[in-house]
Amino acid sequence: MAVVIGGGISGLTACYKLITESRTRDLSLRVRLFEASERLGGVIDTVKRDGLVMERGPDAFISTKPWAKDLCQEIGIADRLVGTTTQYRRSFVIHNNNLHATPQGFYMMAPGMIIPLVRSPIFSVKGKLRMAMDLFLPPKNSDEDESLESFVVRRLGREAFERFAQPMIGGIYAADPSKLSLRSTMPQFPEMEHQYGSIIRALMARRKNSDQQNASGPRYSLFLSFQSGMQTLVEELSRQIPEGTICINTKANRVDLQPKKNRWIVNFNQNQHIEADLVCIALPASRAAAIIKSASPIISGLLGSISYSSSITVNLAFRQEQINHPLDGMGFVVPAIERKSILACSFSSVKFDNRAPEDIILLRAFVDLAQERNMIDRSEQQIIELVLRDLNTLLGVKGNPIDVLISKYDNAIAQYYLGHLDRVRQIESEIAQLPGLAFAGNAFHGVGIPACINSAEKAVTKLLEDFDL
C-alpha cells in the first residue's frame, strides 16, 4: 500500500506516477490519495462564467523547466497547451503613477542592453551610471549565500533594486528580498557573476536568443497555459487515476512508524488509521511538520522553520470603454516605493486568447500584503475598493467591474530565506534514513508548477527504490 497525503498538483502527480511506474515495474502496489478539502488541485483553480476564464492561482507555467510540459505530453493534453499572444510581448513598471515599458534586454533584475537602459525614464542618470558600474566591479570571492537584495544592491545599486528588481521578485515570491536566498531562488545570477565577472556582461553574451532580444521583461514566449485554463491539468490527472483511489474531505492527522514491521501508520479523524508501506506527504511545510512530528521530531522541526507568505488575487472584468489605457502589454509591476495596494496586475485578456468576450477586458491584480499586516483579513468589499483606487490611478479605470473574483490563499507560497539550501539538505539527509517516506511540494526546490511536479517525481523514485529493497 502506498499513501499520498495532499491533493494539490504535487500530490496528484505523485499518485499518478506511483500507479503508472508500479505498473511499468510490474509491482503489486495499491495507491490511495487523501485530500482534506472538498476539491483537488490546491492553488490551481479555474473559474469559468459568462465567457470569462479566471484563474484563482497560477495562470501559466514556464516551459524551460521541462517537467510540466513533459507530464502534459505523457497524459495526452499537450495539444491543449497555448502560449501567450504575440501582439504585445512586453511588460510595464510603474514610475510616478505612470506605466513605462521595461527596457528591452532586461532580464529579471538586470539590463542586457545599454542603449535601452540609457533611454529608459524608469531610472535616474545617477541610477543608470551606478548600474553600469557592474561592468567594472570585481566578482564576489566567497561562495557564501547572500540575500537577493544584497546581491542586486552590490552589483547594480540601490535604485536598480527599488525600481526594478524588488517588484519583479515580489511578483514571483511575494516576499521580502532582504531575506530571500539568492542561491535558492535565482542561482543563475551568482553563476553569471562567477563566469563573466559582471551580470550585464553575462546577459549581453546570452542575448543571442531572439526572444530575449526583442522582448522586454519576462520571456513571454516561454509561458504556457491551456485553452480552458490551468484546471485542465488537474482534471486530466484526476481522470487518469483509477476510480476509488482518491478520497476527498479526508484529513490525515499523524504519520507514525512501526519499527518492527517497518510500516507506516497514517492516522485520520475519529481514531481511524491505515497501514502503508510507502507514504508521500505533499503538503505545505507547516502542515507536513505537524503530521510527521511523532515519527521524526528532527524533520518536523526543520520543516516548521520554512516560512510561507499569503496571497490575494482579484480578477476584474470591465467593458472596454471603462479603461483609458491601451493595454499594449501583458501587465505591470509596482515597486514598493510607489506605496500602492497592488504589487502587480496582469492583462489576462491580452496575455492569452479566449479569456474574455471580445468587448470585455479581464484584469488580474495581485494585492500587496506587505503594505498592511492584516490585509488578508480585510473584507472583499474593502479589497475591491483598494484595488479599484489603484487601477483608476494607473489605468484610468472608470466605474465598477461587471464581474469580480477574489481569491485568498493563506500561507501558500514557500519563502526560501537565507540558509534554505542547507535546511533542505538536512531534511533530505534525515528522510534518506527512513525507508518508505518521501515529501513533495513547493517547500524544497522551487515554487512553480514544474518544480512541484519534479519534486513529486523524485519522491516517487525514492519510494519505489525503497519498496524494491
Walkthrough of the structure:
With 469 residues, the protein is an alpha/beta fold. The protein is 36% helix and 22% strand. The chain has 17 helices and 20 strands. A seven-stranded mixed beta sheet has the order 8-7-16-17-18-15-19. The protein has a five-stranded parallel beta sheet with strand order 10-2-1-14-20, covered by helices on one side. Strands 5-9-6 form a three-stranded antiparallel beta sheet. The protein is globular, with a radius of gyration of 23 Å.
Which terms summarize this structure?
469 residues, alpha/beta, seven-stranded mixed sheet, five-stranded parallel sheet, 17 helices
Strand order of the largest sheet: 8-7-16-17-18-15-19
- Uncertain parts: 210-217
The average pLDDT is 93
Major β-sheet annotation: 7 strands, mixed
Radius of gyration, Cα only, in angstroms?
23 Å
Count the helices. How many? 17
Termini gap: 15 Å
Structural class: alpha/beta
Shape: globular
User: What is the share of helical residues?
Assistant: 25-40%
Record field, number of beta strands? 20
Strand content: 15-25%
Topology:
Blueprint (H helix, E strand, L loop, with lengths): L1 E4 L3 H16 L6 E4 L11 E4 L2 E4 L5 E2 L4 H9 L5 E3 L8 E4 L2 E4 L12 H6 L5 H8 L15 H9 L1 H16 L8 H4 L2 H9 L2 H7 L4 H5 L8 E4 L4 H10 L5 E2 L4 E7 L4 E6 L4 E4 L1 E4 L3 H8 L4 H8 L2 E13 L11 E3 L8 E5 L1 H4 L8 E8 L12 H16 L7 E13 L4 H13 L4 E3 L9 H20 L1
Parallel strand pairs: 1-2, 1-14, 2-10, 7-16, 14-20
Antiparallel strand pairs: 3-4, 5-9, 6-9, 7-8, 11-12, 12-13, 15-18, 15-19, 16-17, 17-18
Helix pairs in contact: 1-11, 1-17, 2-17, 5-6, 8-9, 12-13, 13-16
